[in-house]
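<instruction>
Derive structure tokens from the sequence
<data>
Labelled lines for chain and fold
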Amino acid sequence: MILTKDQQTIIRAKKTAKIYLEGVAGTGKTTTAVHRLLAWLDSGVPPQHILILLPQITLATPYREALRSPDRPEGADAIIATFGSLTQTLIALFWALIAHDAGFANPHKPPTFLSLETAQYFMGRVLDPIIERDGLFDTVKQPRNRLYSQLLDNLNKAALVGFPHTEIATRLKRAWDGGDADPQLRVYDDVQVCVNAFRTYCYAESLLDFSLQVELLINHLLPLPHVQSYLAKQHRYIIADNCEENSLAAHRLLNKLVEGAKGALVIADLLGGYRRFLGADLSLLYYARQAPQEQVTFTQLFTSPPCVHALASELATTLGKSDLIQPPASANPRDGLVIDTFRYYPQLTDAVAYEVARLVGEGIAPHDIAIVSPFLTDTLRFSLMTRLEAMHIPVRSHRPSRPLSEEPAALALIHLACLAHPQWGIHPARHDLVTTYKTALGTDLVRAQLLASRATIWKGLQPLLKSFLEIPMTGQSRITFNVGGRYEGLRTWLAEVIAASEQPLDHFWRRLFGEVLSAHGYGFNTDGNPNKDMAEIASALIYSAMQFRLMLTETNTLPHGESAGAAYIRMLMGGILADLYVPRWSQPDSAVLIAPAYTFLLRNTPVKYQFWLNIGDDGWSERVYQPLTNPYVLTAGWDSRRKWTALDEQATAEDALYRLILGLSRLCTHKIYMGISEWNEQGYEQRGLLLQTVHRTLRRWSEAG
């Protein structure tokens, strides 16, 4: 790899140098950091004393690949951590020193770290009775799990920004631009009641959700000399990448690390800050610049070709903003754009699939193509994946906000678990049985419906499976004996489980997948081998259930008269989001990627061709409706004396779109396709800010000739 002079200067700097490196995406910052890491190792720095700090673990791929290179000697690896994982490590090590002063009811009880799933689970246990009793949030029409995720967001923001959680409602109410009698003010009061009750429960049971972990780190751990000494001895060399995604709390921890380190490289993207929902704030880069002794700015783009660079700059100009790096004067933005307009939505997805097929046919690797949209709906995901798979083009999708319980493979496992445990009292409905048979048995919808109607006896709401041989011969013939044989094998296996004593849910799923569903002919098997996508979903579900069971056992908080398996199933069916399971996301596949735009951005991996779909959708610029919070008001830079107005909403929408356009363009090495559908999936006309920006830009080009 050919490195620039600026890159080589940083890589070859004395190992005790502390450098702050900034620049826009695509200027070679991470590449420089990887080579700086290797230079430290080559100079004799023990790898166990190098800390690579990242905002999320999925950004660790280039560092891991470098450390696992065949050219590297065997031995210990550098430590790769996130702000959250490092915080948990410190709390676990120094819990005995802080538990009493922090105010926990039983300071001798070890802490239990809550994941996103388990935090929502315990929040439901605490708040469900309160909400029902007091009629809280009666004007908010959102599912309970959405309410809980917003309550956790509020707690996280308070901790990351550094104000007491008891001030959440006060801050939100001060910024509300409505009258004193506005019902929204009562919603904020309900928010305060709920977060107070949940925090009290956490202190009583030594449960640490993310926000409480952050509070313990900032208020109790970092001030301790023992902790500061540990950090200086353990982490002597620091690489902190993507610091623009850091919260104020993360910057405080980073500054302590850099101050005590012998050498450091702190890196920031000047147009990032996409994780605002987790407290990211570009104005906080002031803190990242404080500790390092030297500051460097990269200005040479490596990823975007001149035409794509010019296209992004033109769109930024239309928004009244400017690109931090200007494209060459000779660059033609029209060469970086292909734009097509269709009247109806299916025409758009058809055209995208055919164009992807054409590119692959010309030799473009599938993994060099990404299809992004503001939201990845089930309809869009299904239509694109089925079209591409029909053309034999490998494709994968990723949507972190999609609950595991919405995946067909996971639904089949959930409903089969309910059938095998009738004592839970959770019974699948008829349509659930149909989809379960279709997925598990690898059959079509008609035969699945026949099995659900003719091979099932309903005892009230409880379905009882009868033998395939008990179905009349005409029914057997329509179902076919191949499908009937697989059904009978599954039914017999479930009957044996029902007759035996209950086993942990994760054990049950492991056996079900290994002994039945992955066998030849079943739905989790493709061409004689386990289906990879379904196996990954099953693995994620099994791991999640195992972690949930261990957590309930550790905290001794099993619901009275209910097993951990039943509690887990109820939680999933309530729409609780699953954690981001790194193996499924980080494994590189040679497949076309379909993902939400921000998910693709945080992946931080360039592709040759990008397809931007539904550019008329408001989701490209507008934030998701969250009646219980406001991610901009609960930030370090917000003036608490101001009201949040429509002008603020418009300004933040334009700024978000500006950063999104430039961020996506920096990850495109050849061309951007934009697809416009006059009518969206629901049949409504689309006139979002991105579409308006594109139209104004095209009009300006037309007028200029």
